[in-house]
Amino acid sequence: MYVYADNAATTKMSTVALNAMMPYMTEIYGNPSSLHSVGQEAKEALENARARVAACLGCEPREIIFTSGGSEADNQAIMSAARYGALKGKKHIITTAFEHHAVLHTLNRLEKEGFSVTYLDVKEGHNITAQQVKDAIREDTCLVTTMFANNEIGSILPIAEIGAVCKEADVPFHTDAVQAVGHLHINVKELNIDMLSLSAHKFHGPKGVGVLYARRGFPLTNVIEGGAQERGKRAGTENIAGICGLAAALEDACAHIDENAAKVSALRDKLIAGLSKIPHSALNGDPVNRLPGNVSFCFEGIEGESLLLMLDMNGIAASSGSACTSGSLDPSHVLLAIGRVHDVAHGSLRLSLCEYNTEEEIDHILKVVPEVVSHLRNMSPVWRDLQNGKRQYIL
Ligand SMILES: *Cc1c(COP(=O)(O)O)cnc(C)c1O
């Protein structure tokens, strides 16, 4: 049995998305900026996709800009608000301590340019409150950027309340909704969102294509300079096949959102209940306001990397917050931000589910994970010290 439980990293493309893309990689290969008919056919597909994406988000087609993915959309949203803020002498930005690196690294760059950034604390309930945002807003705040839902621990942020606070204070609000779009109901107008980032490959669409929604009139800065595509706000020949795949996948996800959420959250709850029985373990993330597919745990006395390798050998594809993607040995900034100490954060496991997962697969995970955890603990010097009292248990 092979179980793919790493849907927060990326998802399998759906047949719906693939079928929507094929014609634009074979017959309708024109450049939408060309005046001939094969170009104009591509242009029609582009505008049709834009309208359908806008309908899914509750905005106007002209408020949709296609990008190369979630990272680019995050970069453009933040750089735009920063440039506009600087013009008015406003150089303060509010964010959270557990954002994606696409947001955090962009903000680090701005800090080097003289911006000041407030990182809201996420220890309490593994989440933030709108009150924290309200308290942090200053005269010179030019942007609030908080994710819609966290990719590692699954916490869903109180976006409606944050949107209301920002509207009241007249501060632009951007949300990295990459983990939320296609999984949770989102209407950007009702939620008072000024800018939103999404990415197709997190909801069974293709990789390398995303969207920046920006409220009409919001002054955008280009990240990619060149031709006049995307109303002059994002240069480069449009990825028509990818954009058509994105629109089809988004429509499909939104049409089945309640049904998928019910199915996936039942699998999630079964998994959480089963894994909670492992001694000296703890669930990460908001236990109530939680993404339907997210299961995140820390197990004391083991290394996340060893756990992942052994799960892979047992046919389970998962992820660990401590994955040293950068080659460093630092544990995940998200787990540290919620207050996990280094040793505990190193023993983390994220299983992220989607509607393709089955109950049998959950049973397989529930059989394998406890076995592997106890196997690794039996080999661990740290675990031995915990057992014979030379070290204190934290969990
Ligand atoms: C995946 C992800 C991104 C990056 O999106 P890409 O399309 O891979 O660039 C940004 N933010 C969050 C929360 C994500 O989960």
3D shape: globular
The SS-based structural class is alpha/beta
User: What are the bound molecules?
Assistant: pyridoxal-5'-phosphate
Share of residues in strands: 5-15%
What about the largest sheet?
7 strands, mixed
Low-pLDDT ranges:
none
In total, how many beta strands? 12
Q: Number of helical segments?
A: 13
- SSE order: EHHEHEHEHEHEEEHHEEHEHHEHH
Rg from Cα: 22 Å
Q: Specify the helix fraction band.
A: 40-55%
Biggest sheet strand order reads 2-8-7-6-5-3-4
Report the span from N to C terminus: 32 Å
pLDDT averaged over residues: 96
Protein topology:
Elements: E1 3-4, H1 15-26, H2 37-57, E2 64-67, H3 70-87, E3 92-96, H4 101-112, E4 116-120, H5 130-136, E5 141-145, H6 159-169, E6 173-176, E7 195-199, E8 210-214, H7 240-255, H8 257-275, E9 281-283, E10 294-299, H9 304-313, E11 316-317, H10 333-337, H11 342-346, E12 348-352, H12 359-379, H13 381-387
Bound molecules: pyridoxal-5'-phosphate.
